[in-house]
Specification:
The chain is of the alpha/beta class. It is about 25% helix and about 25% strand. The strands form three sheets. A nine-stranded mixed β-sheet has the order 1-4-3-2-5-10-7-11-9, sandwiched between helices. Strands 6-12-8 form a three-stranded mixed β-sheet. The longest helix is centred in the C-terminal third of the chain and has 18 residues, at about 230-245. The two termini are about 30 Å apart.
Length: about 280
């Protein structure tokens, strides 16, 4: 399923290292600017910035860039935007795709750790640890001292690769995949729109073995969790139903129980009930 009407612009020279970082964006201009400044300090990459219903500003310091815009008349087309970014990167000749959410800052070794892991496991779905930064932290000069990976995900030693059989632990905040491996996945399912579940669906459907990559640290800039936004609740519920129809079980169960406890949804998995209040 292909998003229609994507427009492309190219800034700067072609990619020097065959690595493309794909970032999807709606708003969050400051987050994007910080991410781009840090990408410019590391190994040479092409940055593919996919604006969802907007033309994202990529001025100032940053790596060589390609800017896309995908239509977003309704809920954010996160799956479609990632697919569009991957296609653009492959068209530019990238051999390795690194997907990094706009609110994530790359650690100093993120690119080289992903590249080394891809050389060892070119058919793998490669995930790095993510640290969620406290409110008020602007750690652009000394990220490593804030390293505190989320405890719900493994964080192997630097340079280690850990096979992960629990595909439901995959998250799309920060991951990498070779071009050849991506070509065999079919991309993200674009039936999902708005927030939630498209990444778990991808992990189940892509056919790639999941690995945790030690030392490929990303740092999530603080903002209010999307699931606390009342406008997102219907998106989460809709995507959970799409996932349940495809796979027969409820994704995001902890979030759904949390929303149930807050009275935002009715969630009774034993009776197959999930609906907004």
């Amino acid at each position: 399923m292909t998003p229609g009407g994507a427009a492309a612009r190219q800034d700067g020279p072609g990619p020097a290292a065959g690595i493309a970082v794909v970032t999807t964006v709606r708003g969050r201009a400051e987050h994007l600017a910080r991410q781009r400044r840090l990408l410019a300090t590391g190994p040479a990459v092409r940055h593919v910035v996919v604006g969802m219903g907007e033309r994202s500003a990529t001025g100032g310091v940053g790596p060589a860039t390609r800017v896309l815009t995908v239509p977003a008349p309704g809920p954010l087309p996160l799956a479609a935007a990632r697919n569009a970014g991957a296609r653009a990167a492959l068209d530019d000749g990238a051999g390795l795709l690194v997907f990094l959410d706009v609110d994530c800052l790359p650690g100093p070794d993120l690119i080289i750790r992903y590249a080394a892991a891809a050389a060892r496991e070119p058919g793998g779905l490669l995930c790095g640890p993510v640290t969620f930064l406290p409110e008020g932290v602007r750690p652009e000069q000394d990220l490593p001292r804030h390293t505190d990976p989320h405890p719900a995900r493994p964080a192997p030693p630097d340079g280690a690769l850990l096979v992960e059989p629990r595909r439901e632990l995959f998250w799309s905040l920060s991951f990498a995949v070779t071009a050849a491996a991506w070509d065999g996945t079919g991309g993200f399912c674009e039936d999902y729109t708005g927030y939630g579940a498209e990444d778990t669906d991808f992990a189940l459907s892509c056919g790639l073995r999941l690995y945790w990559v030690g030392g490929a640290h990303a740092y999530h800039q603080h903002h209010r969790p999307a699931r606390t936004d009342p406008a997102r609740v219907a998106e989460i519920v809709g995507n959970a139903h799409r996932f349940h129809d495809r796979w027969g079980w409820w994704p995001m169960a902890d979030w759904l129980r949390e929303l149930h406890g807050r009275g935002a949804v009715e969630f009774a998995p034993d009776r197959g009930v999930l609906r907004t209040r």
